Amino acid sequence: MVMLFRSENFPNELMVTHEEINDKSIEGVRHRFFPAFSVQFHPDAAPGPHDASYLFDEFMRMIDAFQLEKASK
SS3 for 68? Predict the structure, then answer.
């Protein structure tokens, strides 16, 4: 059995970033307090090879920010 989560019954610590257009199931989340996010689709697959490249850019920004924060302690 597959459970579909929707925004109205999702934990407060997580922010919905991507939602499926047809059934409104959650396809992407970001943690509000920790540097973590996830998507349930393949970000470099169709419809276009660059449609989700911003996710890879955001991941690299999160790594850089974490390293800077770690170095300043």
Answer: helix
